[in-house]
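batch job 7 of whatever, protein = Lipoprotein
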Amino acid sequence: MSRLLAGVLMASALTGCSLMELARDCEGTETRVAEVGALGILDSRPDRATARQRSEEEAPQCYADSGDVVVSAGRTYAFPGARAEVAAHYREAARKDGWRPDPDAGPGELIFAKADMYLSVDFTRTGYGLTVLSFE
């Protein structure tokens, strides 16, 4: 048992992770989950976009993985127009709401940052999805 504990402590020291960080969970994030789920940008949409029924994955939620605690929320919209219309809408709506383009976004990615949150717009065959991730 002492060898196992020594191995865990050595691994955490080498990776820069503490045991406390690895033990983090979603306890106490209920308020933040509700705040992220209520962000107005998630309900902003261009004309002709129609909201699809929300899936369980889009519901505001918290998840913890290897010490990272992330709150997320999403929406999916059907849209008959061009992707450029959606992109133009969110560039303007995000700017007005204090989001800025994420400088680390790759070519063709539509990602915005605000404080500790990221908003991504991902296109599908028949519309697009919005996802907000907040790193706690």
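notes: The radius of gyration is 19 Å.
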